Amino acid sequence: MSHAARRIPRRNGFTLIELLIVVAITVIVGVVAIVDISQRRVDTDLTSTAQEIATTLRQAQSDSMAVEGGTTWGVHFANSTATAPFYALFSGASYATGTVEGYYRLPSTVAYRSSSLPPGSSMDVVFSPVSGAVSGSGVGGPVPISLIQTASYAEQSGASYSNIAAQFGSSVATGDAIVVAIEHGAGYNVTGCSDANNPTSTYLFADSVENTYDGLVTEIWYAPNVAGGVNPAVTCQFGGADSYDDIAIQEFSGFAASGSLDATSTYDTESTVSSLWTTGTSTTSGNGELLFGAFQGNNGGYSLTPGSGFTKAVDNGAAANFTTIYGTQSSAGPASVAATSGGSTEQANAMATFTAATTFSAATIGLYMPNESAAFSSTITVSPAGGVSY
Asked: Which residue from 55, 246, 296, 383 has the least number of CB within 10 angstroms?
């Protein structure tokens, strides 16, 4: 008797264990992929932000070298605690006084390192015209402004002249500034100042005041970033022939190379007489600024005593009653120049404030990922010559 062999049926599926293994492998692969994608995105945020900051710095440098818009350009960095950290492209001497041309917030995944930009702080990186070197930065603070030399001339003969001049006894240093104060009669305002020995130095108007009761006019002009040269002879032209005029010229070091004029104010007593002298009050925008005051009285015979913290630069004598006084303000804020005298007189006084240059060795802008490991960081460096690297 024969028997046919029994067939064992084939399975058409997976066991539970096999399915669990497949699911586990799939989950692991998915998690790894998600983590990898996430890390790539984080790394991309950091890299692209560093690249964009470097590009913005180079754009500012290029625009300064081309003197685009007739001014300097820079980049402002702010580790703001009130809003998201940001950086901004601006034209002008500083972010505070310039024009914002582009505003960029850091991604939420990227932050400034506190070692390069502490929370709540900010800094400007400003590039020089033509050369592209760094001319100003919030790094290091303001350079002390110092008086180098003075010269003056008082025309008290009664003769009428269409100009007035004074000459320094020594050469001036390249990059210094010359501040000019002039007093004259009403109706003969200064039309311009120049230096025959250094014709490339440009003199700009700062401020003026007129006491209409006595016809007293006081003006302030200045030349920033002068060309160094032999004994500047500064001549100021009047709008007509005038008499009993005075000029005082002062060389200062430490001025910002461009955009140095900040705030101005004036004060005149009209017919009132006083022994208390002031220039009126204005508000400065930077630390370490020069406060320069020019004082003119109607009656001679009174020598001015500068207020606390101020120094007399030029005193043209009791007959002229024309004096310049200066000082520096450590922190930005309301400012004025004051003095006293032994007698009372009508007055016409003016003040101009000037920003200081800033020290600069190299600026570093550190970036990192607050929610990632220390490996996720980048640093952009700006050298004094204007080189940008990251």
From this structure: 55
Q: How many CB atoms lie within 10 A of CB 112?
A: 22
The Cα–Cα gap between 318 and 172 comes to 29
What count of other Cβ atoms lies within 10 Å of the Cβ of residue 65? 17
Sign, Cα dihedral of 145, 151, 156, 162: negative
Dump pLDDT digits (tens) for 215-229. 999 999 999 999 887
CA distance 107 to 372: 14
> Hey, what are 377's tokens?
């960081």
CA triple 182-308-358, angle to 5 deg: 70
Question: Could you give the CA distance from residue 255 to residue 130 in angstroms, rounded to a whole number?
Answer: 19
**In this structure, are residues 289 and 252 in contact, taking their beta carbons and an 8 Å threshold?**
no
Q: Is the CB of residue 180 less than 8 Å from the CB of residue 247?
A: yes
Within 8 A by CB and 6+ apart from 220, the residues are 179, 180, 181, 182, 206, 207, 208, 264, 292, 294, 350, 351, 352
Reported as half-sphere exposure (CB side, CA atoms, 13 A), residue 96 has a value of 16
